[in-house]
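Hey all, sorry for the wall of text incoming. These are the two entities for the joint prediction.
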Amino acid sequence: MNEMKSGGVAGSALQDATRYSDDNQPHDQWVMTTRLADYVAWGRKNSLWPMPMGLACCAIELMAMVASRYDVARFGAEALRFSPRQADLMIVAGTVTKKMAPAVKRIYDQMPEPKWVIAMGACASSGGMFRSYSVTQGVDEVIPVDVYIPGCPPRPEALIEGIMKVQQLVEVGARRGRERAITAGAAR
Amino acid sequence: MPLKGTPVKRAARAGLLAATYLPSILKGMWITLRHMFRSKVTMQYPEETWKLPDNYRGLPALVRDDEGRVKCVACFLCEYVCPPKAIHIEAQEIATGVEKGPKVFDINMLRCIMCGYCEEVCPEQAIFLTKEYTAVGVSREEMIYHKDRLLEMGGIRPDPIKKWARLTHDEAGSDRQQGAGHHPVGAGSGVHG
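and here's what came out:
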């Protein structure tokens, strides 16, 4: 993070050449300064624990994203938690039928704050091609969604892009508040 | 009621060494070690991307012809054929006096399933599926792509038919929106229109 600068205080200790390290700073004065909110956000965004809400074929691509070729562990989000109490990012992958919607809502409610939601694929984002009495026209009719990913299904790269977008929202949200982070994300 | 079949027996313990689980652990570690020397399969995604085949179907986009005209004539075929009804078109008259053009051309990318029916059905070859597949958005409104954005995504496709060549010769093509100012390549021989 940009805010994390090592700001060694130059004082009389600097005159003691024997105590310098290679980067020319005294050992006992290595200091990292940041704001607590930024620090927490940095930790959060680099260890998102997704709750895989796999409801249809998008879940196959979700699994592919976790597997070795796309390897979402590079973004710190490899710990898929099948218990909502341990997760902070719900990835709704697939068609949310009206019958499943209460269960999705309940699982979302069981996740501890702060939490984010990715609507993955056409069905979860908008209902897709299922303009039907039995399908919710987007999971955002039931729970608030932070990032939408188009595709039927989206490629794993697109889902990685979605996770990177959530990381941006986490980072900006720590500074500007959550609603404004989403607005800023839209402008980006 | 008699049960069919006989249940298998649990394997007998192999001995004192196996009871320490060390052979099993070493066997597992050996597999892990072997994988360290195999070729790496992970694609470092944002830096490294997949090579898409030529017929890859990504997000749809509108194209202009090589004189900068919008090729779409607002015939509504794509809107009609689109399985999830992701396309919304409103037509308007254009100055050539022959064809229509789209006033509004919206594609809801969240509805779009990239099936390619629109490209297949289009009689003017005005809509194509691009290779864009990593778009994400933070709101529904953001993911409805309007005409300008679709045209920007599509870019220019050369038009071998020169359908409007005669018209541009006569009326100087008042429908031109950009790239105007030069005569088309086949203007004199535009007999196809």
